[in-house]
Amino acid sequence: MAGGRNCILLFFPMIGNLAAIILTLIVILGGVRNVNVLRDLYFFKLDLSHITSKTLVGETGLSSVVSTSLIDSAIQDTLSALNISNFYTAALWGYCEGDVASNNATNVTSCSHPEALWWLDVQKILDESLNSTSVNITLPSQLTDYNPTIETASKLMFICYFISIIVLFLGLIAGCFAFHSRGGSCCASIITLVGAIASVIASGTATGLYFVTRNFVNNTTSEYGLVASVNSTMMGLTWGATIAAIWAFVWWILTICCGSTRKSYEPEKEPFIQTAYAPPPHGY
Description:
The protein is an alpha+beta fold.
């Protein structure tokens, strides 16, 4: 009876650990290759398909002579000729880029080589795309002034994701020794707590970093034609991993409080030993 109850109690935290590991792994693998599913997993997207003349040449008197829309259309054609993509997406290891069709359908053309502790530097990405030309594109200072903050937050996020997945895996292993052992459950709960904290920090940093960046771009640089967005799918995955890790920790605590440390015991039966029959003695 106690063994069955322990199996049920251990099932829930183990599932929580496993779910958190799988979801975190999906987040980590997002954007590492230009293949189905992975290329669509990103945190942040910057759309340059509506970039305007202000981005390249700033305020000039040219717009009073030529229609601004014609200038912007020519700029888009020029950017296309210079291999500047219509959009860039940022994941954990790097970025992907692609084009936007006339029907607004997106097509990812390539992804950068995975780089540990990568952070989103849009100016650097554009400079690398234009390194074979004499053209320079200078982004508004409002976007580049916060690069140190973006770098620090991105590196913290990267480190916490890996701490989380490694520690949660160790918690899963420790849980295998928790059957009939409150000590094992206690060890698994402590390890899982560390993984859950790392997951909370990673998800919270990703949410704060990219939502603030999105709002800042859209509120201050919309006149340049830059449009930023956050991928709700990726945010759902990272917070799903965090919730699963917290779920696992809570259930590990319950296994400590409610689990049994006694193994089921059945008294050993005495073996039946057959002896030769001896008739009782007769008195004379």
